Amino acid sequence: MAQRAVSRRLGKINWMFFRLRAVKAALYSRKIGGNLLTNRWKNERRCVAMSNNQIINGVNVTQLVSTIELIKEKPEIADFKFRATNKWVGGTHNRANVKDFYGAGAQDDSRATMTFEIDEPPVLLGENHGANPVEYLLVGLSGCLTTSMIAHAAARGIQIRAVESRLEGDLDLHGFLGLSESAPVGYKEIRVSFKIDADLSPEEKQELIEMAKKYSPVFNTVAKPVPVKVSLAKE
Question: What CATH number has the domain bearing residue 207?
């Protein structure tokens, strides 16, 4: 019951909790590099503190600050565990589902199941039932960088009108097909470019990009790989 009470107090849990420590850092002036945004942040932070329900970039900053304070009191509720399941359909087509997760001290299965069709284009022996796995990686990276940028900008009181990104990755099939021991199996390089519509200088926009990189879980998982354990499930 206590765990459920904590979950209710936090409200609808979403992507933001995965970045709470990052946003906490932004709110308490950990520097990203350079000081172009510092004065702007200090001034806007006063406005945020005076508002009862400050919404910036669609993010409820007042609720965010309250959540951070709650996590300072109960650090254990910052631990989250996300899950996905996958089932082979046929050929290169498989289907993944996302529904429940663990966070804020409790299991959360309140969301409807989200389904992701995964396939390859015909040139790679698929039938275009969905994007392929390496494209989903680009999609996840784009979403995480954008979300991190928007959340941190909101925490600093920075209004953003629009953000667009383009991602591109280089892959050599020699590695995947086992034709070369020297060719990497994964991406050789991934490039991301952003267009940001905001009342900021080019230097300030670049600071936002660096901030997004620093606090994006997906970017850091890709750029600084974490251990991945793959095993046979027990019957």
Answer: 3.30.300.20
